[in-house]
TrEMBL record:
Family: Belongs to the transposase mutator family.
Role summary: Required for the transposition of the insertion element.
Organism of origin: Jannaschia seosinensis
Gene Ontology terms: biological process: DNA transposition
Name used for this protein in its record: Mutator family transposase
Database matches in InterPro entries: Transposase_mutator
Species classification: Bacteria, Pseudomonadati, Pseudomonadota, Alphaproteobacteria, Rhodobacterales
Keywords: DNA recombination, DNA-binding, Transposable element, Transposition
């Protein structure tokens, strides 16, 4: 059952357009709503937030869809600090974390579509990842 539910959830967040995602979302609610009422209710409550990435440039979707970017950033630090348990005071721990983060930074991906960032910052509207032309009123 896990694989089927996972595939149905992927149909939502991997849809090409927000309209297709909403249709997949409605189907998911219809299929699983009766049996998994609490879980589906949480998804329905946060529906707008879960589908908000469709209002950003399509180039950025890959980064927004990432499940846990913060966890991956601190994985290096967490792994190293576990090994040095009890050998650190506050000052040396901060120094070690700083150096580990600087080292890990070398492996971080750059954002796709950096030329779209000014548009996002200026609040230009995107629909299904496509920039909407603004008409003069």
């Amino acid at each position: 059952m896990h694989e089927r539910v996972k595939a149905d959830l992927q149909d939502i967040w991997m849809a090409e357009t927000k309209k297709e995602a909403n249709a997949a979302f409605d189907l998911f609610v219809e299929i699983y709503g009766a049996k998994y009422e609490k879980a589906v209710a949480k998804l329905v409550k946060d529906r707008d937030e879960l589908l908000a990435f469709y209002d950003f440039p399509a180039e950025h979707w890959k980064h927004i869809r990432t499940t846990n970017p913060i966890e991956s950033v601190f994985a290096t630090v967490r792994n190293r600090t576990r090994k040095t348990k009890g050998c650190l005071n506050r000052k040396t721990a901060l120094a070690m974390v700083f150096r580990l983060m600087k080292s890990a930074k070398k492996k971080w991906r750059k954002i796709n579509g950096p030329n779209r960032l000014p548009d996002v910052i200026q609040g230009i509207e995107f629909k299904d990842g496509i920039k909407q032309l603004q008409t003069a009123a």
